[in-house]
Amino acid sequence: MRKYFLTGCDKNTEWQLPWFVQNFHRHCDEDLVIADFGMSAQMSEYAKECSVKVMKCKSDGWFTKVEAMIKLQTMFSGSYCWLDTDCEVRADPSSIFNWVEPNKLTMVIDHPWSTRRPELGHWYNSGVVAFQNSPAILHDWYKECKTGRHVGDQEALHSMMGGDIMKKTIHISEAPHKFNVLRIDIIDNVAPPNPIIMHWTGQKGKLEIKKQMGL
């Protein structure tokens, strides 16, 4: 089954794209698709040069990530993995597909949020999401995002699970921590050794990315 990785950005986050692409291609030979959520013409041309396809998506909110995942599986047949552009690929991430199960989203536990807001159980970080075919939960997630009741896609998914362990088991398969190590995991001293994907979240994460880029 062919494997596709997907990322995306708009004018506000496109500065990270060259850094992301260079890290990705340094470690991975799988196909990369880039979702255009409103990039500049210059960055859109750059994206076309370094990806299988640039996929135009409506820029109607932060939930365009979930829209892009749905659109991708209508264009290509295979297995898929979304990566936020603030994810630093440090080793070949392709083995995440070994953890994908039919009709589920494969994600990593968000340890900082699970510790700081434990009232509904484990959170799952939406910076890395793998799946195959077209799981119903992906479409339900998009509908929930569009209600406007949540501040982000991760919050929407967590609310849908409602702390129900059985529901999480039915809809989400857990990938090992090394596939999505958050910046705060380092601060909390819970980061595993040798991350495959280092996720530089938040404003301090952006500063780290800029440092790596020499900006």
Structure description:
The protein is 38% helix and 22% strand. It has helices at residues 17-27, 41-50, 64-75, 111-116, 136-145, 153-161, 165-171, 183-187, 202-213, and strands at residues 3-9, 31-36, 53-56, 79-83, 87-89, 105-109, 124-132, 172-174, 181-182, 197-199. The longest helix has 12 residues, at 64-75. A seven-stranded mixed β-sheet has the order 3-2-1-4-7-6-8, with helices on both faces. The chain has a three-stranded mixed β-sheet with strand order 5-10-9. The chain is an alpha/beta fold. Strand 1, helix 1 (17-27) and strand 2 form a beta-alpha-beta unit. It is built from nine helices and ten strands. The radius of gyration is 16 Å and the shape is globular. It has one domain (3-213): Spore Coat Polysaccharide Biosynthesis Protein SpsA, Chain A (Alpha-Beta Complex), CATH 3.90.550.10. The model has no long low-confidence stretch (mean pLDDT 93).
Succession of helices and strands = EHEHEHEEEHEHHHEEHEH
Fraction in beta strands? 15-25%
Distance N terminus to C terminus?
A: 39 Å
**CATH second-level architecture:** Alpha-Beta Complex
Structural class: alpha/beta
Radius of gyration over C-alpha positions, nearest whole angstrom: 16 Å
Which CATH class is shown? Alpha Beta
How many individual β-strands?
A: 10
Question: Into how many domains do the coordinates divide?
Answer: 1
Assembly level: single chain
User: What overall geometry do the principal axes of the alpha carbons give?
Assistant: globular
Mean pLDDT: 93
